Amino acid sequence: MKISLGWLLVAASFAPWAIYTSLPFMALSRHTAAVLATGAFVTGQILFIAGLALLGKNAFARIRSRIRCTRRVKQQ
């Protein structure tokens, strides 16, 4: 249960990106758009960190190794 919830939170942490892509198409003031973007960013970060906390060190190492592999490919 704990691992399933952790992966669900990690996956849900990417949902705020939908807000970023839709902001230019909404009739909002700059202030409102900035508040929404900031709130979405903070929410995404909190969900990601909470998900990693539930998953533990092994999942963190797994995600970190995938990020490092991506960086190595780009450098070559």
Poorly predicted regions: none
Largest sheet entry: none
Helix content: over 70%
| CA(first)-CA(last) distance | 40 Å
Description:
The chain has 76 residues and is an all-alpha fold. The chain has one domain. The protein is 83% helix and 0% strand. It contains 4 helices and no strands. The radius of gyration is 16 Å and the shape is elongated.
Task: Please tag this protein with its features.
single chain, 76 residues, mainly alpha, 4 helices, 83% helix, elongated
What's the short version?
This protein has 76 residues and is mostly helical. The protein has helices at residues 2-12, 16-22, 30-55, 57-75.
What is the strand and helix layout of this fold?
Layout: H1 2-12, H2 16-22, H3 30-55, H4 57-75
Helix pairs in contact: 1-3, 2-3
